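Problem statement: downstream parser choked on a complex file, so we are re-checking the raw output for the flavin mononucleotide run. The parser issue turned out to be on our end (a line-ending mismatch), but while we're here, posting the original submission so the record is complete.
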Amino acid sequence: MEIKILFGTETGNSEGLAGDAQKALSEQGFKAEAVDMQEVNAEKLKSYTNILIITSTWGDGEPPANAENLYNELQTSSGVDLSHLNYAVFALGQSFYEHFCKTGKDFDEFLEKFGAKRISPIELSDDDFDTRFPSWIEGIKNSLLSKK
Ligand SMILES: Cc1cc2nc3c(=O)[nH]c(=O)nc-3n(C[C@H](O)[C@H](O)[C@H](O)COP(=O)(O)O)c2cc1C
């Protein structure tokens, strides 16, 4: 089963977790690949079956630079059919910001809007992302295994 792990990052935290996810899922026999969001547009999403989105929020509630194009495209598009797509979002942020984890929350809603199926509820992480991540990816792994 193929899984693309799309990361949106400014300082590398999300990219690091995407690498961990690739490793954990590959060890279970999945064809998992971490992908820079810069490389992905809505058209490409149509060719995927399972995606994980791991992204931080930057600026004043804005997407990281490498996630901007996909974010803007999904925000402004209509009529994209992603009903074949399974997804889950792991959001990084810091809770003292007004727009806590906004980019992750928005991606979660954009994908729902286009009919994609949530594998598990969005995970919102603070500076504790490293400790929250292992149990999140374990849950994802089990959900995907049950779909195999
Ligand atoms: C300048 C700056 C702006 C930030 N803005 C937000 C924000 O609006 N909302 C939020 O939840 N976190 C915000 N953060 C926190 C980052 O999302 C957090 O540090 C995250 O772990 C960075 O992950 P990354 O290395 O993958 O980009 C901001 C951090 C910095 C340094």
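For whoever reads this later: The chain has one domain: 2-147.
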